Amino acid sequence: MADRYLTFTGTAPGRFLSRRLGLPRPAPLKRRSPGRPTPPGDTLLRTAGKSDLDLADTALGLDLKAAAEKPAAVLLDATGVRDVETLAEVHAALHPVVRSVADSGRVVVLGAPLDPADHHQAAVQQALEGFTRSLGKEIGRGRTVNLVRLTEARAAASTLRFLLSPKSAYVSGQVIEVGTEQVTAPEDPDLPLAGRTALVTGAARGIGEAVAETLAADGAHVVVLDVPQAEPEARRLAERLGGTALALDITAHDAGERIAATLPGGLDVLVHNAGITRDRRLVNMPAERWSSVLEVNLASVLRTTDALLTNGVLRRGGRIVATASIAGLAGNAGQTNYAASKAGVVGLVRSLAPRALAEHGVTVNAVAPGFIETKMTAAVPLLIREAGRRMNSLAQGGLPVDVAETTAWLADPGSGAVNGQVVRVCGQSLLGA
Ligand code: NAI
Known about the structure:
The protein is α/β, with parallel strands linked by helices and about 425 residues long. The protein has two domains: about 20-175, Rossmann fold (3-Layer(aba) Sandwich), CATH 3.40.50; about 195-425, NAD(P)-binding Rossmann-like Domain (Rossmann fold, 3-Layer(aba) Sandwich). The protein has 14 helices and 13 strands. The protein has helices at about 5-10, 10-20, 85-95, 120-140, 155-165, 205-215, 230-240, 255-260, 285-310, 325-330, 335-360, 375-380, 380-390, 400-410; strands spanning about 45-50, 65, 75-80, 105-110, 145-150, 175, 195-200, 220-225, 245, 265-270, 315-325, 365-370, 420-425. The strands form two sheets. A seven-stranded parallel sheet has the order 9-8-7-10-11-12-13, with helices on both faces. A six-stranded parallel sheet has the order 2-1-3-4-5-6, with helices on both faces. The relative contact order is 0.12. The structure holds 1,4-dihydronicotinamide adenine dinucleotide. The site of 1,4-dihydronicotinamide adenine dinucleotide has 27 residues, from helix 6 and helix 12.
């Protein structure tokens, strides 16, 4: 369902009324479009404290400028901030330039991991989180602010390119930790998934369809998995993307084996997207509503993950991206079953990530969508829908492609140092923030 309010506030009377009445004024977000450079303008580099990062390294693929009149993005390197005095350099670096950042522009703050042996460093590095989240809430005009903790620039190259680009249009207020694993950058940055096979569950429609499209646009051969009832849609999509359709209920106990049988060449990217809701308050919830949600959203994710890791179908260098939800982080009335299942996904990611990387060379991360414009959210009653749409820093819902772009970044061969992260795609929703 179209966001009519967003369209209205783009008109002259809409702008006037929303300003006069103090109503939210969402800005249309700029997203990736073919042929547009990423980022679509200058990225300004600023530094606070003394940094050891080599951001000028050409292998990063970032074209950083020391000065820019109307930057599309600002990258603030604050990794060297170790005390409160130097923290003032964060203010000094951004205060003069924030206003000039273009509409739908990006601010990315770089921080260091917290030093357990130095509570002054830990205090001011943690301070960067409060700073980032607050700037995200006040910056407006479709602009986003995120924090990346890192120790080494090359390992974070894919993450920086994503966060500085229009691909991260609906990702704001996030803190992402990047490890120190050696990463191999894809040969062709425009087709990072060339030669790779990706399987997306629940891909016949909604967010899963957008994920399949985006991974295919990035060069992957995509297996479009959905329930047998959705086979015609899955087939049509697979044909359009030059992929393969797989009619399979993911809750089938032999789902892992059936997937393995259709993928003799192995799998590089596994996206657990299939999900259902069966909302009721706990007092009115029959056991069947509880178990069906837990079965699709969590049990089948655990089972297929285990099967595809242990039978070696997921190759080294592989990527698992699971779909959580902000309801799993914040809780939501009427969704004890759904929120339990999505919080379970977060637990799975955090526990499995280090082991999967050490033992199988596979990263495990989650996306946690907020309010995304799909058939699922179009069915939500009007007032609750409007609240969901507006209660975030961008004052609008996200699109399926926003979740898809985030998934594609986590699936990138160059994202091998991003592991165990839960990245919200929620426009910095107030829920559970
Ligand atoms: P949707 O209902 O439009 O699509 C879900 C797809 O999964 C459908 O094609 C369905 O047939 C398939 N599916 C369901 N059960 C299956 C099973 N047992 N085996 C195989 N396929 C199955 O949902 P939407 O909105 O696209 O959501 C996708 C994911 O994102 C879900 O995990 C959902 O929980 C999550 N999410 C969505 C949000 C939103 O605002 N739309 C917000 C937060 C999370």
